[in-house]
């Protein structure tokens, strides 16, 4: 499908939010975006409404649009529910995936691996996000996919430190994350739900400490939420 100014604006804003080129809570200037993309105000507002529906931006009455913020409450909720949703999506993906989706997942993993080898942090953020988006598509569940999509926005933004390793241990964990993706693909191919769920928790634990580097200034520790009642309930049910 040919790109249009409207689709370019949509994709660019999504990318800039995921890669933190646009900071959380940043205001979006409707007039300057209209001029930059050669659009009238109406299609720009259409894009704003679409992105708001997907959880990327917040439209405030009489104040305009802003990038969806991240605060103590949103981060707390993220750490409470992310492992549960990822595990449920994983089980549904095993049950419902189509061969073309598995092929798409493999191609995304190749791009992710290439980005990890060249330490291209921006590409890693986007390819990792796409990898987990495909899991949502594989689930085929209209209730879970929007929840996953909203989680992935903050996961991408919180996880930036993970894709910018500063020491050998962080580099080792990044490589393990790449290997986990291969494990997900193998488990899907084998239709092994339990293996996928086990990997979800391993994958989550791997990145959790790096996420704490992002949120420490706000005084929030993931340990306060991960491993708590919600996660324990999921582990008992799996």
Describe this structure in words.
InterPro entries: GntR_C, TF_FadR/GntR_C, Tscrpt_reg_HTH_GntR, WH-like_DNA-bd_sf, WH_DNA-bd_sf. It comes from Rhizobium redzepovicii. This is GntR family transcriptional regulator. The C terminus is likely disordered. α4 crosses α6, α5 runs antiparallel to α6 and α5 packs antiparallel against α8. This protein has a 3-stranded antiparallel β-sheet with strand order 1-3-2. The radius of gyration is 18 Å and the shape is globular. The protein is 71% helix and 4% strand. A hairpin with a 3-residue loop joins β2 and β3. The chain is mainly α.
Large-scale geometry: globular
With strands numbered from the N-terminus, the spatial order across the biggest sheet is 1-3-2
From the N-terminal CA to the C-terminal CA, the straight-line distance is: 41 Å
Low-confidence stretches: 217-238
Largest sheet: 3 strands, antiparallel
Run of helices and strands: HEHHEEHHHHHHH
Structural class estimated from helices and strands: mainly alpha
* Average predicted local confidence, pLDDT: 88
Query: How many helices does DSSP assign?
Result: 10
The count of β-strands is 3
GO molecular function, one term: DNA-binding transcription factor activity
Domain HTH gntR-type: 3-70
Protein name: GntR family transcriptional regulator
Pfam families: FCD (PF07729), GntR (PF00392)
């Amino acid at each position: 499908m040919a790109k249009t100014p409207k689709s370019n604006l949509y994709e660019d804003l999504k990318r800039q939010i995921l890669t933190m080129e646009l900071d959380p809570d940043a205001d979006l200037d409707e007039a300057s975006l209209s001029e930059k993309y050669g659009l009238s105000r109406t299609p720009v507002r259409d894009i704003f409404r679409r992105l708001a529906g997907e959880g990327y931006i917040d439209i405030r009455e009489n104040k305009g649009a802003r990038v969806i913020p991240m605060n103590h409450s949103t981060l707390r909720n993220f750490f409470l529910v992310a492992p549960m949703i990822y595990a449920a999506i994983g089980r549904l993906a095993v049950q419902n995936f189509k061969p073309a989706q598995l092929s798409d997942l493999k191609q995304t993993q190749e791009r992710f691996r290439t980005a990890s080898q060249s330490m291209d942090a921006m590409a890693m953020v986007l390819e990792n996000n796409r990898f987990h988006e495909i899991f949502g598509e594989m689930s085929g569940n209209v209730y879970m996919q929007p929840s996953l999509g909203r989680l992935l926005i903050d996961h991408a933004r919180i996880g930036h430190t993970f894709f910018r390793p500063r020491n050998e241990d962080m580099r080792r964990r990044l490589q393990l994350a790449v290997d986990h993706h291969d494990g997900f693909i193998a488990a899907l191919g084998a239709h092994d739900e339990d293996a996928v769920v086990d990997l979800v928790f391993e994958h989550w634990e791997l990145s959790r400490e790096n996420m704490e580097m992002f949120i420490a200034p706000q005084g929030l520790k993931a340990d306060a939420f991960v491993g708590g009642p919600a996660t324990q309930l999921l582990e008992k049910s799996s």
